[in-house]
Write a structure and sequence with these properties.
CATH class of the largest domain: Alpha Beta
Shape: globular
Largest sheet: 6 strands, mixed
Strand order of the largest sheet: 4-3-5-6-7-8
Strand content: 15-25%
CATH topology of the largest domain: Rossmann fold
Distance between the termini: 50 Å
Number of helices: 12
CATH superfamily of the largest domain: ANL, N-terminal domain
Number of domains: 2
Structural class: alpha/beta
CATH architecture of the largest domain: 3-Layer(aba) Sandwich
């Protein structure tokens, strides 16, 4: 456990405020975007001394980066060691250059995260995520595991047969994967008489999908996994933009903040801070990033946060599960909802193998939802059963279209995809 993680919130803030002058001076000297921002708004950075003072600086958005990507880059090309891009789910992918120091910071971040998830150098990790395609996550896990001193097996995503063959051959203790894939591993094991319950796997570091409800209890997906396989689940949240992860400890009460790597605010639509217990957009200021540091960047991710000390001994702030992305909000028949609410229902229905949620604009200009449901067999009255579940849980019923599970799988994993696609927003394409 890091020393700063056990210090009071006030001491953590003091540390961050000591780092602020260097960050602001670096941005003014090296980032054309932020130099222009300071000049346009007549901001005297020498007067920004506290986290409260940061509010004098306008927020940065994904649109800003999309429009002026090159103006955010702070280093010459000969300092760039690795080129990373975002997945581009809300537009064209954005380039994030990484220097040698940035890669070291990334390794440190992930090492801290794995330690938070009760991992040690005695563990062996099986990576079920891609490390290519300009993807940050797979590289971060690999670097973090190396820094931890543990063993790593780079299998990549998908292919349950290869995953189980690797588990039987090498006996890893931990898998790093999208949690819904764990259900596919279980399904394959059952079909092929693999004694998965007595395998070497003891825990899973879960990425990309939420495992918890707002009250931090396991959601439907998390419950289904632990009911079928007695392994410890650790949920994580991260993004390319922040180069930092929020990872659960054994208590499972939200992802722990690494205050030496990122300053975090939770803002409403008017960019005002929300109170604990109120839904806010995760807004970050990176510390220690050279290639492309960000200042008051709104991630688009909405969640709750918690400040009370954790039973594990850490006193850091914690993030709850991501309720949804701001741009993914759906207004459907008078109800406001986010895709994870739909996923939670679909994950709880036997017979649903996979799915894709599509949102488009109908002929009267309002949001419409079409869910493509993958099923091997469609039981009698299955459509009406599904609609009843949606009506009882959400009070609205989306359109449904049934396909073979293999058809949906091909839609989820396109040639350029780096993680399964479960949400397609066509509203901006109509």
């Amino acid at each position: 456990m890091l020393e700063i993680e056990t210090k009071s919130i006030e001491e953590q803030i003091k540390y961050q405020e000591e780092q602020l002058p260097a960050l602001l001076n670096y941005l003014k000297a090296n980032s054309k975007f932020y130099a222009d921002l300071f000049a346009e708004h007549k901001i005297d950075i020498s007067k920004i001394k506290t986290l409260e003072d940061l509010k004098q600086i306008p927020i940065t958005t994904k649109d800003d980066i999309q429009k002026r990507n090159d103006d955010f880059i702070c280093v010459p090309k000969n300092k760039i060691i690795d080129y990373i891009t975002t997945s581009g789910t809300l537009g064209s992918p954005v380039l994030f250059p990484m220097t040698e120091n940035d890669l070291e910071r990334l390794a440190y971040n992930e090492c801290c995260s794995f330690k938070c998830a009760d991992s040690t150098s005695e563990d062996t990790f099986q990576l079920m995520t891609t490390i290519d395609k300009r993807f940050m996550a797979g590289l971060a896990y690999f670097l973090g595991i190396r820094k931890l001193g543990a063993g790593v097996i780079r299998v990549g995503g998908g292919v349950p047969e290869l995953q189980w063959d690797t588990i039987k051959r090498i006996n890893p203790t931990t898998i790093v994967t999208v949690p819904s894939f764990i259900l596919k591993l279980i399904e394959y094991a059952k079909a092929n008489k693999i004694d998965y319950k007595n395998s070497s796997i003891k825990k899973a570091i879960c990425i990309g999908e939420s495992l918890r409800n707002k009250d931090l209890t396991l959601n439907t997906l998390g419950q289904k996994i632990v009911e079928k396989w007695d392994i410890k689940l650790y949920s994580t949240y991260a993004s390319t933009e922040m180069s930092t992860a929020f990872t659960e400890c054994s208590v499972g009460n939200g992802g722990h903040h690494l205050p030496d790597l990122v300053i975090v605010e939770f803002l409403d639509e008017k960019n005002e801070s929300v109170k604990e217990g109120e839904l806010g957009e995760v807004t970050i200021t990176t510390l220690g990033v050279e290639g492309m540091p960000l200042l008051r960047f709104k991630t688009g991710d909405l969640c709750y946060h918690y400040t009370q000390a954790c039973e594990c001994g850490r006193k850091t702030m914690r993030l709850g599960p991501i309720i949804g992305r701001k741009k993914h909000m759906i207004k459907y028949k008078g109800t406001t909802l986010f895709p994870p609410a739909l996923y939670d229902i679909l994950n709880n229905i036997d017979g649903v193998k996979n799915y894709i949620v599509e949102v488009f604009t109908n002929n009267i200009g309002t949001d419409e939802i079409l869910i493509k449901v993958g099923c091997d067999v469609i039981p009698a009255n299955f459509e009406s059963t599904l609609k009843e579940h949606f009506q009882s849980k959400l009070r609205v019923t989306p359109q449904l279209k049934f396909e073979k599970a293999e058809v949906i799988s091909k839609l989820q994993f396109t040639e350029l995809s780096r993680k399964p696609i479960t949400f397609v927003d066509k509203r901006n394409l109509e």
